[in-house]
Amino acid sequence: MNKTKIGIFFTLLLVLGVCSSCGEKKSNNKLVLNEVLITNEGNYQDDYGLHSAWIEIFNRSYGSADLAGCYLKFKNGRDSASYFIPKGDILTLVKPRQHALFWADGEARRGTFHTNFTLNPDDTNWIGLYDSGRNLLDSIVIPAGVLQANQSYARISDAAEKWEVKDGSAEKYVTPSTNNKTIDSNAKMEKFEEHDSDGIGMSISAMSVVFCGLILLFIAFKIVGRVSVSLSKRNAMKAKGITDKQEAKEKKLGEAPGEIFAAIAMAMYEMQSDVHDVEDTVLTITRVKRSYSPWSSKIYTLRETPQKK
Question: Under CATH, what is the fold of the domain 2-184?
Answer without folding.
Answer: Immunoglobulin-like (2.60.40)
